[in-house]
Amino acid sequence: MGKRGRKRKRASHAASATDPRRAQRTPSEHGLGWLVALVAAVLAAYSPALEGGFLWDDDAHVTGTELRSLAGLWRIWTDLGATQQYYPLLHSAFWLEHRIWGNAVLGYHLVNVVLHAACAWLLLLGLRRLGVSGGLLAAAIFALHPVHVESVAWISEQKNTLSLLLYLGALLVYLRFDDGRRPRDYLLASGLFLLGLLTKTVVATLPGALLVLLWWRRGRLEGRRDVMPLLPWFALAAAAGLLTAWFERRLLGAAGASFAFTLAERCLLAGRVVWFYAGKLVWPSDLTFIYPRWEVNVPAWPHALYALAAVAALAAAWAVRRRSRAPLAAALFYVGSLFPALGFVNVYPFVFSFVADHFQYLASLGPISAAACGAFVLLQRQEGARRRVFELACVGLVALLSVLTWRQSHDYRDVRTLYERTLARNPGCYLCLNNLAAFSLAAGDTEAAAARYREVLRLKPDSVEALSNLGNLQLKSGRVQQAIESYESALQIAPNNVVARTNLGIAFFTAGRVPEAIAQYEAALRIMPDYQPARRSLELARAAARR
Can you give the pTM of this predicted structure? Predict the structure, then answer.
């Protein structure tokens, strides 16, 4: 074959990577058979976690006793404080699951696995509809990448898997609307988008992502055709974002000294966060449940370099947009989808770390799809033995990711294993130290528990929980005055902490200082009138005072 023949052949292979007509000639690539295969592969990779128990805040997501009735389901939708976060569709799903299998953890794990595999399948369908080849490789990488273990093996993160399913469903239907302009497609896509927002607020990034995809397809955006239909979606996204920001700040406590950053510091933080997540996608080593929390100060040259590198990468993608819009589209999708977790908006997990694997669950679709498409183009350009080697490399990559996911899933077998593995990779994780102290107490080792609480206070002197727990341990051991001092230290940091205030009252009562105990119980009830431990303790203290 001459040079011209080889050039024509390569050009045809490259065109097939983004030709919708060519892509639609192989419908078997997105049939139900691939969905079954994806479910089986994900089940095998996540098998170590399937029998795992409830983890950190799973008990706040799995439906509590007070919400298990039909009236409780109504409260999930109408009472902002009924659940840990106002995601009523998510908690309705948990409500339904609890009706089916109660507290049996296997059921929740299986739902998460199936949802994750279904998301990978919808990713394949979406890439095929966009005319992007390499969709099967992208779906396999997404389904089996170890960076997603936290989202799939942790029951609480059903918010990720369910919301992404709705996100991709809305995206697919909207693309169909964009092709045919049928009102019923628009209404269905809007309904799926709204349901996604009611599952997790990160779905609010979808209208921006759609504009990026439409620009990538046509090279331009038209106000009437492209922007106007998405304006209601942007309004819904803004409302959902404001509600979540209020909820995080007011009800979850995402405020105070731990969140006191200037705009410049937040920009520096965002630059490092973007590269951190990209690095974990490329080289998924040392994945852990809670990463070390960085210090962000201005000036900080390492952070500034990350930010400058991010700007430079976007500038480079912009510079080559006339040759290929794909790099800029992938970068905009990735950064835009990560925006809620970049540090510009306060979210409670930032107390422990600025990054978490589950924060990039949705955003990872962009770079994974771009990399898979690039690999497919390179594969189509190979011939003979080189082509077979390249195919084996792709299969080997998916197999390697499966093994890494299987290994990472072992961390999620039970909560103690999770804390111990996290602490091994992040020795400064005071949350793990504090929670592991409870296991020491259960084993009767009060000295080990006290040592862990003191280590927490060394790492984080303002840890109200550690001070309260240390006070509980001291009170139980008969060191009443030390317990009083621990509770008072906790209340100096958080005067409205009703648990610490009630425990201080119990310590005063134990020491025979009944009037002071009554004053603490009354103060706790002024903060939270329905707090039953304080109410019961107050009744006992008043009875003792009368005697």
Answer: 0.87
